[in-house]
Task: inverse folding
């Protein structure tokens, strides 16, 4: 299975989703720039996407929810060891309330691996992120400057982007009903 990610305005991503309505495509809204995620066994309809192979997964993505995508740029010779380490973990977030699904992604044309998580809402994600389980699951992250140096497998610091499956108004209250 493959996951392809394309970025652009929400209007354009919605247009592409409608054009290819027989494909498994989900528009993810994330502020100024939205993302269209295409999950397929074959090739994508996108011209220049970020391209990934799914190497591990739990659950199936649902039509609505809250997504996080953590991008991890790894040196070429460290991909297999990094992905193997993540796959061998009993990831605590898969047992958290509000967890729906996750996919661990190996890049096809770059050095950037990705972890996509789907949650019922931002509060579920934040509860896990604020727990000690987060540090165990994502021990490669250094968001709180808890380590003196980044792991040797990482080319640059990883980062996480958050998305919703529906446009969110800026002044709406944050809850788990997306």
Result:
């Amino acid at each position: 299975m493959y996951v392809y990610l394309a970025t652009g305005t929400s209007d354009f991503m919605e247009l592409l989703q409608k054009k290819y309505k027989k494909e498994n495509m989900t528009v993810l809204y994330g502020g100024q720039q939205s993302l269209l995620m295409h999950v397929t066994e074959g090739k994508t309809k996108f011209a220049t996407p970020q391209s990934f192979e799914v190497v591990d997964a739990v659950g199936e993505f649902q039509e609505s929810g809250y997504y996080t995508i953590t991008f991890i740029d790894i040196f070429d010779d460290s991909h297999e060891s990094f992905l193997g380490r993540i796959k061998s973990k009993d990831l605590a977030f898969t047992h958290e309330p509000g967890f729906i699904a996750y996919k661990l992604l190996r890049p096809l044309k770059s050095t950037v691996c990705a972890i996509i998580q789907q949650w019922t809402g931002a509060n579920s994600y934040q509860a896990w992120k604020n727990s000690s389980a987060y540090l165990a699951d994502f021990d490669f992250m250094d968001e709180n400057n808890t380590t003196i140096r980044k792991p040797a497998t990482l080319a640059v610091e990883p980062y996480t982007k958050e998305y919703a499956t529906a446009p969110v108004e800026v002044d709406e209250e944050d809850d788990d009903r997306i």
